[in-house]
Amino acid sequence: MRRFLLVLILALTLAACGQTESAGSLATGQTLTVDGVTINLQAQPAQAVQNQQQTWLITLTDAAGKPIDNADVYLELEMPAMPMGQNNPLATPKGSGTYQAQGLYSMGGAWHVVVHADFNGTDHIAQFTINVNE
Ligand SMILES: [Cu+2]
Predict the structure, then answer these.
(1) Cβ pair 30, 38 in contact under 8 A
(2) Backbone angles phi, psi at 12, to 5 degrees
(3) 82-105: per-residue pLDDT in tens?
(4) 125 is in which domain, residue-wise?
(5) How far is the CA of 66 from the centre of ligand 1 (A)?
(6) How many domains does the chain have?
(7) Is residue 49 in some structural domain?
(8) Does residue 8 lie in a domain region?
(9) Domain-located, residue 87
(10) Separation of 80 CA from ligand 1 center, angstroms?
(11) For the chain, where are the alpha helices, taking DSSP H only?
(12) Residue 81 CA to its chain's centroid (Å)
């Protein structure tokens, strides 16, 4: 419920800024489970465009479905096709197991967004593939 409210608030905030993101696409995202930790990645805007500000929301839940709020979270942005240099946005905890990071993709094409969630002494790593428009 809290997470739904957060999503709703974000959707309203974005609507107020004149963007056209629907709550539906916000609630989707991609999910992977690593060593008992479920890592969900959502992005705003849902379709990334090169060199435009991107916001990522990472939500962590444990095996019992409880939100994890005591993790250190950062992203590694890389293109599988070529070296693009270091691009590692740090995520800030927002409560209810959600962490927020901001940054941009410096090029269109296929990217890996590798989420690092350091929790209880273990770096949980989940790799997502994102296609970025030019
Ligand atoms: Cu590239």
Answers:
(1) no
(2) -65, -40
(3) 999 999 999 999 999 999 999 999
(4) 29-132
(5) 37
(6) 1
(7) yes
(8) no
(9) yes
(10) 8
(11) 2-16, 23-28
(12) 21
How far does residue 27's CA lie from ligand 1's centre (Å)? Answer: 29
CA dist., res. 18 & res. 34, Å (int): 36
Chain-centroid distance of CA 54 in Å reads 10
C-alpha 126 – ligand 1 centre gap (Å): 21
CA distance 80 to 76: 12
Question: What is the 134 CA–ligand 1 centroid distance (Å)?
Answer: 11
Question: Can you list the positions of beta strands (E) in 35-97?
Answer: 37-44, 54-61, 72-78, 92-95
Amino acid at 37: V
Q: What is the pLDDT of residue 92?
A: 98
pLDDT digits (tens, 9 = 90+) for 48-92: 999 999 999 999 999 999 999 999 999 999 999 999 999 999 999
Cα-to-centroid distance, 69 and ligand 1 (Å): 33
CATH number for the domain including 44? 2.60.40.10
Structure tokens at 86: 């270091």
Strand partners, 123: 118
Closest of 108, 110, 91, 95 to residue 41, by C-alpha: 91
